[in-house]
């Protein structure tokens, strides 16, 4: 066959290339993502030095992971929205409305209005289902106006920003709603129940298996069709580094971080455990919000890269007319991105309400800025068609690192805004320059 | 094939087609037809309405008036998907590629191959793409890069590959070789001849009158949104077709002076 010669596969396990450049190329890494990872590590070390070792501590990193999760969950959805050349300014308000509604379900409607009592086994589930459904409906409503009526998304979601927040105050005269169902609070990651403890190692193992499986299956698929495959040594190196990263992160929050002494003492008494000298050491482990983020990240990455829907979102961003001419139902696709965004806002609303332990009207205020910033710092381009889910998650961690790092350094809040704003613009400037050079 | 004895309805008949943009009559009462295994060249100056007429057939911009028949059956083509369902594939003048994704993603856009669990089968799509494009343009190597970074000719190869891969019955080619080099143009000519021999009907829009004479069986000429006329290639000279394009005069109306003025 004629094409046999042009697709000569690179021999598996061939020797590592000589020059550093070709070595890097044969690893097939995402340069932008790698750059951000390096920038993040530099920031961590920087803040740690400046604060005299207060930043790179287990409790701080654990908090960072929880705080980043709430924003990162929404940022994954914002990627799809911005990639398809739209915007969503209403995410903070949708989060506020869904979060408040979930609080109402468990603190007012189920126990009082319906007289079903407190702390029912189904309470948290009903609250979640109601909240997520509401999020999907609100997203869908905005999506219909944007995709089918053709009102620019900026306008629709700017209206949504005001409307959904306004509605929060209409539900219960703006009161703070509490208490939150015990089971529901687990979603927020608060101790004692909101972290996985030793179970974190099972999550770590699953992640490692996942990394290795991904490397293996992509090599196998390429091989089946005779395409050039990633060299074996490079696949092994990436797997090893990836797994090491996962294990290190889990070690920090599990073995490196124990319950506070008071909580551990209470636990020991309640469970009749003998306390050793120096108190009981109970590992904290991954927080539930981080676990939720991992699941969301996996699902969203699959949607973005492995499903038709995701392919259409990117094609619409690259050339809306071409997408239309290819027979893609572009309107339904855009509508889909807003439904997903609404669902993710509700998930984030659940995390934040559970974390706070009550429903408040101000929940999520100005979150749209953090979410959009996270997506954009993560390499999502406003010209459309470009963006990645892992990038947006890293972007959320970068944003949160800046905030919490400056908090550790006791930087005033106006100065914090100044720095975050500058970093946002600088990051996009770097992206733009890299993007221009790549063309 | 001989037109006179053929009693079958044409593969495509577009009758009294009208398309206007605001007050501009881009296509004004145009009737053209196409038979299986036939190439109809559609020619005319810039802005004559050729692309607009064809966009009505490919569902890109439905017509304001007129009727379309496929194999004698009246059809309505409200969108590109409907056109594809009738076996109509189009190479658009603008190529209509999504710049940010690779050749395979473009080729299968809207018709992705999936695995049993419904996830995209990128490897299978890339494999098919390599085969089709390899036939058109053996030097094409950039299968993993977004098409924005390809040359104009390479992009055109992707658009052509997409149109021919899905077993079209009716093929619309709007200046398919505009950006191609001589070797690649020759490949496309061979491809057109081969598709024709397979019984596919082709509307070919081209500004290259020699290309049209080489490939087309009949030539339809448009001027200012109107059809000047349709002629059999065997019965006309290139000058007579040029006179139709420029002056809107049929070979029966044209004078020696007119023809001379073409070269003046
Ligand atoms: N989307 C549009 N909106 C408004 N006017 C249009 C549009 N598309 C085409 N036209 C007008 O319709 C007329 C015919 O355009 P068309 O593209 O069909 O010409 P053409 O024969 O394909 O020309 P060319 O050889 O330059 O490609 C032109 O006057 C053009 O300005
Ligand atoms: Mg044209």
Number of strands of chain B: 10
Q: What would you give as the CATH superfamily of the domain at 12-96 and 169-261 in chain B?
A: P-loop containing nucleotide triphosphate hydrolases
Instruction: Provide the low-confidence segments of chain A as ranges.
Output: 1-14
Q: Please report the number of helical segments of chain A.
A: 17
Coarse structural class of chain B: alpha/beta
What profile does the largest beta sheet of chain A have? none
Structural class label of chain A: mainly alpha
Query: Which CATH architecture of the domain at 12-96 and 169-261 in chain B would you pick?
Result: 3-Layer(aba) Sandwich
Structural features:
heterodimer; A: 439 residues; ABC transporter involved in vitamin B12 uptake, BtuC; 2 domains; 17 helices; 0% strand; disordered N terminus; B: 264 residues; Rossmann fold; 6-stranded mixed β-sheet; 10 strands; 34% helix; binds adenosine-5'-triphosphate; binds magnesium ion
Write the layout of secondary structure elements.
The complex is a heterodimer of chains A (439) and B (264).
Chain A: H1 20-26, H2 31-50, H3 58-83, H4 91-113, H5 123-149, H6 153-171, H7 182-185, H8 200-224, H9 232-254, H10 261-270, H11 288-306, H12 308-318, H13 320-325, H14 330-356, H15 367-377, H16 389-408, H17 413-438
Helix pairs in contact in A: 2-16, 3-11, 3-12, 3-14, 3-15, 3-16, 4-5, 4-6, 4-14, 5-6, 5-14, 8-9, 11-12, 12-14, 15-16, 16-17
Chain B: E1 12-21, E2 24-34, E3 39-43, H1 50-57, E4 65-70, E5 73-75, H2 80-85, E6 88-91, H3 103-107, H4 122-136, H5 152-165, E7 170-174, H6 182-197, E8 201-205, H7 209-215, E9 218-223, E10 226-232, H8 238-247, H9 256-263
Parallel strand pairs in B: 3-8, 3-9, 6-7, 7-8
Antiparallel strand pairs in B: 1-2, 1-4, 4-5, 9-10
Helix pairs in contact in B: 4-5
The complex binds adenosine-5'-triphosphate (ATP) and magnesium ion (MG).
């Amino acid at each position: 066959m004629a094409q046999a010669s042009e697709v000569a596969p690179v021999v598996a396990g061939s020797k590592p290339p000589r020059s550093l450049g070709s070595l890097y190329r044969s690893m097939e890494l995402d340069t932008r993502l790698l750059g951000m990872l390096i920038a993040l590590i530099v920031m961590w070390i920087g803040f740690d030095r400046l604060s005299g070792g207060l930043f790179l501590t287990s409790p701080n990193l654990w908090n960072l992971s929880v705080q980043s999760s709430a924003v990162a969950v929404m940022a994954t959805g914002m990627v799809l929205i911005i990639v398809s050349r739209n915007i969503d300014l209403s995410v903070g308000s949708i989060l506020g409305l869904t979060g408040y509604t979930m609080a109402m379900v468990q603190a007012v409607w189920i126990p009082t209005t319906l007289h079903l009592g407190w702390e029912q086994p189904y309470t948290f589930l009903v609250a979640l289902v109601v909240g997520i459904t509401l999020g999907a409906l609100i997203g869908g409503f905005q999506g219909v106006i944007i995709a089918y009526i053709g009102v620019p998304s900026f306008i629709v979601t700017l209206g949504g920003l005001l409307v959904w927040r306004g509605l929060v105050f209409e539900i219960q005269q703006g009161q703070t709603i509490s208490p939150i169902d015990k089971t529901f609070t687990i979603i927020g990651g608060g101790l004692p129940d909101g972290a996985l403890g030793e179970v974190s190692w099972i999550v770590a193992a699953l992640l490692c298996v996942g990394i290795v499986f991904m490397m293996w299956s992509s090599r196998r698929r390429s091989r089946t069709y005779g395409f050039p495959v990633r060299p074996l040594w490079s696949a092994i190196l990436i797997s090893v580094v990836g797994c090491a990263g996962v294990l290190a992160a889990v070690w920090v929050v599990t073995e490196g971080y124990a319950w506070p002494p008071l909580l551990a003492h209470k636990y020991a008494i309640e469970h009749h455990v003998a306390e050793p000298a120096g108190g009981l050491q109970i590992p904290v482990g991954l927080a539930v919000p981080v676990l939720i983020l991992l699941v969301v990240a996996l699902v969203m990455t699959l949607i973005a890269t492995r499903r038709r829907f995701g392919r259409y979102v990117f094609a619409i961003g690259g050339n809306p007319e071409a997408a239309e001419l290819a027979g893609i139902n572009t309107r339904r696709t855009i509508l889909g991105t807003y439904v997903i965004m609404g669902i993710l806002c509700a998930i984030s609303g659940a995390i934040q309400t559970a974390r706070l332990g009550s429903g408040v009207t101000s929940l999520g205020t100005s979150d749209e800025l953090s979410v959009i910033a996270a997506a954009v710092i993560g390499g999502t381009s406003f010209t459309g068609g470009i963006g990645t889910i892992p990038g947006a998650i890293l972007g959320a961690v970068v944003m949160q690192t800046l905030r919490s790092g400056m908090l550790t350094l006791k930087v005033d809040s106006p100065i914090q805004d100044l720095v975050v704003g500058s970093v946002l613009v600088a990051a996009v400037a770097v992206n733009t320059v890299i993007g221009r050079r790549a063309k | 094939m001989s037109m006179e004895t053929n009693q079958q309805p044409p593969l495509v008949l577009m009758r009294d087609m009208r398309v206007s943009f605001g007050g501009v009559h881009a296509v004004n009462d145009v009737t053209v037809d196409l038979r299986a295994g036939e190439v109809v060249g559609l020619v005319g100056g810039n802005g004559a309405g050729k692309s607009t007429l064809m966009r009505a057939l490919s569902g890109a911009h439905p017509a304001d008036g007129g009727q379309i028949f496929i194999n004698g059956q009246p059809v309505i083509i409200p969108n590109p998907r409907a056109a594809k369902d009738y076996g109509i594939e189009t190479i658009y003048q603008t190529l209509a590629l999504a710049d940010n994704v690779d050749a395979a993603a473009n080729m299968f856009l809207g018709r992705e191959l999936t695995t049993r669990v419904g996830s995209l089968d990128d490897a299978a799509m890339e494999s098919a793409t390599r085969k089709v494009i390899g036939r058109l343009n053996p030097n094409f190597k950039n299968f993993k890069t977004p098409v924005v970074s390809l040359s104009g000719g390479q992009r055109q190869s992707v658009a052509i590959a997409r149109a021919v891969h899905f077993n079209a019955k009716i093929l619309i080619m709007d200046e398919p070789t505009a950006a191609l080099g001589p070797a690649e143009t020759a490949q496309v000519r061979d491809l057109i001849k081969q598709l024709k021999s397979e019984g596919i009907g082709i509307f070919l829009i081209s500004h290259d009158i020699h290309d049209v004479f080489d490939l087309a069986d009949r030539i339809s000429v448009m001027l200012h949104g109107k059809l000047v006329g349709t002629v059999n290639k065997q019965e006309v000279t290139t000058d007579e077709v040029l006179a139709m394009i420029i002056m809107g005069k049929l070979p029966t109306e044209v004078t020696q002076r007119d023809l001379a003025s073409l070269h003046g």
